[in-house]
Structure formats: C-alpha cells, structure tokens
C-alpha cells in the first residue's frame, strides 16, 4: 500500500485530508511542523509528500530541500506543495528548483487535491491501491471530539465538498446536504423540530390547528406548510419565514452538541432535507453558531491547548475576504488580533470575546502561531495583517444580494477588463505603485470578486469568480512590496509572462454574457432571440444546468403549438434537472410548462420539487396555493350538486 505523508500545522485540515486519502486506498502519516515532518519521512519513506509551505520550525521549502539532499532514492519522492498565500514568481522558481510536482493554493478543492495525488503517483500506483480506490465508499468519518463541528464546517467549505454529512449524538441524528462546500439542506429525526411543533412554540398556531393540519397531511392533501396556507391560518410569506427558521434551528442545534460522530459521504444526496437559505454563507453560520450555541467549556479547552502561542492574521486571502458581516465589537477584536495577541492574554477576556475569538479561528480569518514566526512566515505576516486591517477599514455592511443580476454583470465586466492584462492591469494600478496603492486596489477587488458572493449562482459563474479571485490574489502577492515588484519586473523582462486565463474560463465568461443577453430578451417577451442567446450559452458551457433550463423554456415559448418543440423543451428541462438537481429553476420552469399544457398533476409535482430545493421559492408556492384553491372550489361545487 502506498504511503502519503501529509504535513500541515492545521491539525483539523490534516485529519480531513488523511481520511479522504485513506478512502482512496492510501496509507497516511501526518506531521504538523518541519522537524517532525523530516523525522516521519526518515522513518516511513513515503511515496508522496503533501507539504504546507508555512510551518513552525522549518518551512516547507527547507523540509523539501533536506529531503532532496538525501543520498538515497528517497530524495526523488514526488512532492505537492500547498500555500495559503498566492504563488509569487520567487516562490514558483524555488518550487521548480526543488522538483515540486504541483504548487497549490489553499483552499484546494478536495477533488482537485485527490486528482493531483493520483497523477503524482500514477507511475507507481499498485493494483492494491487501484482496487481499494474502486471499492472505497468515499466516506470521511470521525468524532466531534477530535474535529469540532465549526472546524468541520469550515474545512468542508474550503475543500468545496459536495455530499451528505450525517451527524449523531445519542439518539439524535442530523443530516446536512453540501454543495460546493456550502450547506444547502438539513434533515433531523427530532419530532420537536418539525414545522408544526415549531409554529406552536412560536405561538403562531395552536394545538387544534396543528392536529387538523396533521390529519390533512395523513390524507395526502400536501405539505404541512401548504395545508396551513390553504386553511388560511398563515400566509405564504409567514410559512416561508417559518420554514427558514425551522431549517436553521435544525442546523444550529448541532453547535450545542458536546460530543458525537460524523460521517461525510462524498457525492451523496439526502432525501427529504429542508432547504437552507442560500444567503447564509459558511463563515456567517460558523460565527452565529459559535457565538450563540457552542459550549464555552469546549472553547476554553481548545484555547488552553494553544497556551504560549500567538493569535495572528490568517494567511489565506480566501478566508480573509470571505463573505461575513461582523458587528462593531467583533470588528474591533479582529483588528486587535491581526496585530498579534498571546493566547494566554485572550483566555482572560470575557465570554463574548472568547466566543468570537474561537469563531474567527474556526473561519481562519485569524490563526494560531506556535513559537516565533519563521523567515517565510514573517515575510508574509506584514501583508496578511495589512490586508486584514484594510478589510476592516473598508467594511460598509453586508454585500449586495448575489442573486441580483447586476452582481453577475459586475463580475463579467471585471473579467472582461482584466482579460489578457498583467498584474498591474489586473489591479488597475500604474507600473510604479507604492505599497498602499497596491493594497487598496487589492482589497477593493478581493471583496467584489470573492467566490462567496456568487455561491448561489451556476457552476460557470462560480468557476469564473474563483479564477478572477485567484488572479487578483496572485497580482497582489507579486506587487505587494518593492522587492516583489522588482522580481515581477525582471520576470516580465525575461519574457516569462504567462497566459493566466484558461480556455474554460474564457468560455464561461462568453456563456454568461450570452445568458444575460437571453434574460434581457426574455423580459422583453422576445422569445426567439432569447432562445438563440440561451442556445449559444449552452454551446459555450454545456455543463451549466441553469442555461439549459432557460433554453428548454424559451424553446417551448417560441413554438407552443409545435409538439416536437414541446418534446425538445421537456427533454432540455429534464436534462437541466440532472445537471443542477439542487436548483429550483429547472423544476419551476418545467412546472410552468406542464401547467401551460394542462398537466396539473405533473405541474404540481414540479412545483413541490422547486419548494423542496428552495423553501422561499415564491413562484412555486403561489402556484401550489392556486392548485389547492381550485381543488377546494371543485370539492365545494361537487358537494352542492350532491345536495340537490
């Protein structure tokens, strides 16, 4: 069995990566600083080294350099280097000189990391590993004692994990559906968390109404929320709000668990999960859950484990600029922490401050550094602190709703502007900027292009945001100070400028532009040109379910009396559901199509599916209510006729 040595000072991340690699059939050993990494390497002779750049003691470059100097064949071991900072030209040159297979930037999507490991070990992959990989159930499991729930959420977010997380604590069981690292659905086996009981506790309905709604549910009259609307006890908006509260309560209750186990099944789906509002980003969920629910005793125990260390600014731009809104007191604490504060001093703070400190640690906006910073660490510390301070100074409250079309248009505009530009052009600074000009331009762009802002958009938009954010971060690292700018000038002078935009990124941009054009035509009821625009977006980026859904819908609208066009439309919408099973749009549009064709039962199923994917899908809720009203009228008419 092949052995992988995983070295990272973040023990929680190490645990998750190790479990994922073991699920692929590898034997994994871990280390958390440079010296212990070399000791483990000498003892185990691994087949691959997965190495963080910033480590206590010796940094990743020093560790790999010591490995390369060994007289045995071990010196040729494949190595993957990972850094929370962007890759500067100097770093890339050093990595190349040390024979690094790949230099990855945190956070690395889990699928990308596993594929890179497979590629690096392809020449030495044994039949035993191949068989284990084929049989592996792709499960990550463990206990909440070794990996606290807030840290688990954060790392699944950073690893862009997609699948089902099942948590157990005694008889309690919760399920969370993840898509690209975000919790989008939740399920619970606790009777007290069902919608009716929640509404009783909230004082919105009484026990008699609850029993009547349950009676109607047992008769198959629909979902409880729809029944309460049909009973005219609650409005659609009230039910939507209650469903949101219900889903969030199911999730946040897990933060209270002092112990338990978890099992994450990659690429698996939960049945019957309640939709979580997409406006709640992982960092915001973690901050809310830790500050309101997480046991303070557990927080103190976690902090005491780092006694003697310092809390400093997080190293990763991705985590520094993730989408989270902090109250003024939390902002002040974050600003203080970025200057460097001893953990022992923070242990004396009040409960509220210790809770917020732990939340910021879990989200990796700040991190713990054991002992004195190493040279590479120190070289990055100033920029990380300055970026964090600049982020705080530029806080203006919550960012605009990512669902608004102009936000997507803004991203497309930025992508168009930086296309083919060097690092100066990406940041929009002159070729002779000072440190402050670079920093201000970086912070402004990082906040506008962070992938969290587009988490509920389609795959093409998210991929585009990740690419642009990566380019912005790399431009900042290359221009952050006078020494870095000089190195970049030399790189350009040597003709080493690289093409930074991949073909898939260009096609994603073109597809999004065509899609927005199609939406404009659709609003103007110009169905034929809308169909052509959506057709072009699908041809450019066929993996995007939302594009295909609108293509099918406009195919139907442009030729409603044509049976062949109708079949093509239904086929396209069903394919869109397969591509984007967690999106409500394909279900909603297919429901509208069935409704227009007088297929009420099929339409109702699609509208219910849309609500299951998005609890506050107003269009689907309205259609379901109309269907229920029509049925009530028909029943009333039949009763009157029978009485004659």
What's the SSE blueprint?
Elements: E1 3-7, H1 11-23, E2 27-31, H2 34-44, E3 48-52, H3 60-68, E4 79-83, H4 89-97, E5 102-105, H5 110-120, H6 127-135, E6 139-143, H7 149-158, E7 163-169, E8 172-179, E9 182-188, H8 195-201, H9 207-218, H10 224-230, H11 236-252, E10 261-266, E11 274-275, H12 282-292, H13 296-304, E12 310-313, H14 317-320, H15 328-338, E13 341-342, H16 343-346, H17 351-362, E14 366-369, H18 375-393, H19 405-418, H20 423-427, H21 435-449, H22 459-479, H23 482-493, H24 503-523, H25 527-540, H26 545-558, H27 563-579, H28 584-596, H29 600-613, H30 618-643
Parallel strand pairs: 1-2, 1-3, 3-4, 4-5
Antiparallel strand pairs: 6-10, 7-8, 7-10, 8-9, 9-11, 12-13, 12-14
Q: Which structural traits does this protein have?
A:
Rossmann fold; five-stranded parallel sheet; globular; alpha/beta; 644 residues; 14 strands
Instruction: Assign the CATH topology of the largest domain.
Output: Rossmann fold
Radius of gyration: 27 Å
Outline the low-pLDDT stretches.
Answer: 372-382, 391-403, 496-501
Termini separation comes to 82 Å
CATH structural class of the largest domain: Alpha Beta
What's the total count of β strands? 14
User: What is the helix fraction of residues, given as a range?
Assistant: 55-70%
Q: Given the C-alpha coordinates, what overall shape results?
A: globular
Give the averaged pLDDT, no decimals.
83
Write out the CATH superfamily name of the largest domain: Response regulator
Q: How much strand? A: 5-15%
Number of helices, where a helix is a run of at least 4 consecutive DSSP H or I residues? 30
- Please list the strands of the largest sheet in the order they lie side by side: 6-10-7-8-9-11
Main beta-sheet annotation = 6 strands, antiparallel
Secondary structure category: alpha/beta
Shape-level CATH architecture of the largest domain: 3-Layer(aba) Sandwich
């Amino acid at each position: 069995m092949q052995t992988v040595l995983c070295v990272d000072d973040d023990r929680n991340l190490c645990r998750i990566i190790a479990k994922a690699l073991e699920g692929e059939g590898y034997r994994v050993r871990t280390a958390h600083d440079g010296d212990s990494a070399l000791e483990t390497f000498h003892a185990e002779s691994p087949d691959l080294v997965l190495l963080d750049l910033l480590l206590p003691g010796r940094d990743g470059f020093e560790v790999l350099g010591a490995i390369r100097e060994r007289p045995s064949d071990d010196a040729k071991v494949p190595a993957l280097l990972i850094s929370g900072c962007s890759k500067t030209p100097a770093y890339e040159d050093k990595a190349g000189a040390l024979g690094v297979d790949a230099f990855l930037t945190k956070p690395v999507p889990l699928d990308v990391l596993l594929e890179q490991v497979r590629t690096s070990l392809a020449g030495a992959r044994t039949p035993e590993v191949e068989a284990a990989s084929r049989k592996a159930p792709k499960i990550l499991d463990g206990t909440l004692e070794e990996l606290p729930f807030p840290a688990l959420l954060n790392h699944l977010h950073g690893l862009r994990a997609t699948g089902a997380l099942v948590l157990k604590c005694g008889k309690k069981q919760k399920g969370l559906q993840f898509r690209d690292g975000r919790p989008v659905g939740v399920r619970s086996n606790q009777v007290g968390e069902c919608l009716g009981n929640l509404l009783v506790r909230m004082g919105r309905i009484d026990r008699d109404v609850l029993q009547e709604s349950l009676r109607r549910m047992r008769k198959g009259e629909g979902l409880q929320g729809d029944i309460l609307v049909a009973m005219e006890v609650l409005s659609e908006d009230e039910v939507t709000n209650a469903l949101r509260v219900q889903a969030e309560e199911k999730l946040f209750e897990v933060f209270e668990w002092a112990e338990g186990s978890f099992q994450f099944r990659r690429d698996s789906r939960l049945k019957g999960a309640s939709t979580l509002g997409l406006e709640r980003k992982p960092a915001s969920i973690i901050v809310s859950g830790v500050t309101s629910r997480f046991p303070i005793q557990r927080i103190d125990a976690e902090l005491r484990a780092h006694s003697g260390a310092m809390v400093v600014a997080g190293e990763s731009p991705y985590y520094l600029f993730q989408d989270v809104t902090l109250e003024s007191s939390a902002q002040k604490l974050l600003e203080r922490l970025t200057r460097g504060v001893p953990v022992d001093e923070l242990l004396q703070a009040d409960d509220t401050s210790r809770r917020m400190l732990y939340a910021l640690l879990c989200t990796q906006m700040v991190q713990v550094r054991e002992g004195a910073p190493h040279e590479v660490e120190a070289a990055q510390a100033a920029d990380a602190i300055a970026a964090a301070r600049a982020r705080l100074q530029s806080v203006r409250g919550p960012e605009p709703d990512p669902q608004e079309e102009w936000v997507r248009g803004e991203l497309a505009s930025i992508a168009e502007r930086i296309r083919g530009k060097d690092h100066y052009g990406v940041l929009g600074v002159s070729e002779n900027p000072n440190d402050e000009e670079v920093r201000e331009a970086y912070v402004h762009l990082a906040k506008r292009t962070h992938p969290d802002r587009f988490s509920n958009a389609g795959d093409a938009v998210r991929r585009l945001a990740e690419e642009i954010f990566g380019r912005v971060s790399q431009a900042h690292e290359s221009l952050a100070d006078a020494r870095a700018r000089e190195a970049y000038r030399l790189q350009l002078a040597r003709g080493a400028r690289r093409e930074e935009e991949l073909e898939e990124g260009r096609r994603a941009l073109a597809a999004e532009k065509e899609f927005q054009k199609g939406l404009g035509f659709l609003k103007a009821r110009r169905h034929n040109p809308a169909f052509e625009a959506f057709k072009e977006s699908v041809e450019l980026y066929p993996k995007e379910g939302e594009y295909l859904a609108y293509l099918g819908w406009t195919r139907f609208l442009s030729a409603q009396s044509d049976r062949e066009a109708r079949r093509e439309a239904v086929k396209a919408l069903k394919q869109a559901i397969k591509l984007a099973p967690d999106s409500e749009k394909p279900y909603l549009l297919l429901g509208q199509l069935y409704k227009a064709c007088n297929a009420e039962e099929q339409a109702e199923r699609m509208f219910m599916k849309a609500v299951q994917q998005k609890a506050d899908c107003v269009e689907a809720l309205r259609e379901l209510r109309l269907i229920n009203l029509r049925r009530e009228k028909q029943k009333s008419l039949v009763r009157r006729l029978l009485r004659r």
